[in-house]
Amino acid sequence: MTAVSTKAQKGVGMEGALARWYAGNTRKSLGEFQALARRIAGEIAAGSSVLEVAPGPGYFAVELARLGDYRVTGLDISHTFVEMARRSAADARVDVDFRQGNVSAMPFENDEFDLLLCRAAFKNFAEPVAALREMHRVLNPGGRALIIDLLRDTPMSAIRQAVSQMGLGPVNRAITRFIFRTVLLKRAYTKAQFEELVAQTPFRNVSYRTGLIEIEVDLSK
Asked: Phi, psi (5° rounding) for residue 85?
């Protein structure tokens, strides 16, 4: 395991009221987490070990644990999110190991997971190359990491369309569009920038897919 970073993430940490606001907004898109969980469940074998990096309130991890016999773990830098995610797992009566920690220095052994998911968080990591190297380290040989995140060169017209589909009220829609425009797009990466980051890691088998506002980076160890 690598040394602990002095700066785990960009900007203000997701704690307290800010974390609860985010959790409330994203819960309105629970169907998306359920769809992603069904997709991943269809791509992994029973008994697989799955790590979600930056799971936030834990919606995806809990939904995946509902679907089968998987060893599901979540690692988040936010103490508030870890507490929320643990309560969600307990309420759902599923076994998910949510831990607090830094993606750039994960508290796991080498070759521990079959699949790693990082959704909507990679752009916030202060040390993206260190995070990718840690993802490679904790994956089993032949394991897979899937990063799904905002694409930096997404036009605002697409952002407005995506936000309109989130089921938010007028005030939260306006706030969310503002955050996309002033913060998230500036932190996000283009496909070319992702390629530059991945080139500095041991990952060699990589594919990319883009959607309305997202890019999927699929990496195999």
From this structure: -65, -40
Report the C-alpha gap between 205 and 184 in whole angstroms.
Answer: 27
pLDDT of residue 2: 40
Which CATH homologous superfamily contains domain 16-152+188-220? Vaccinia Virus protein VP39 (3.40.50.150)
Token pair of 8 as six digits: 């785990």
Are 171 and 145 within 8 A, CB to CB?
Answer: no
d(CA 218, CA 203): 10
Q: Which residues of 71-88 are buried (b: 16+ CB within 10 A; e: fewer)?
A: bbbbbbbbebbbebbbeb
Name the region of 120 (left: φ>0; alpha: ψ -120 to 50; beta: rest).
left
Per residue in 68-118, pLDDT (tens digit) is: 999 999 999 999 999 999 999 999 999 999 999 999 999 999 999 999 999
pLDDT in tens, 160-195: 898 888 878 898 889 888 887 887 889 999 999 999
Domain ranges of the chain: 16-152+188-220
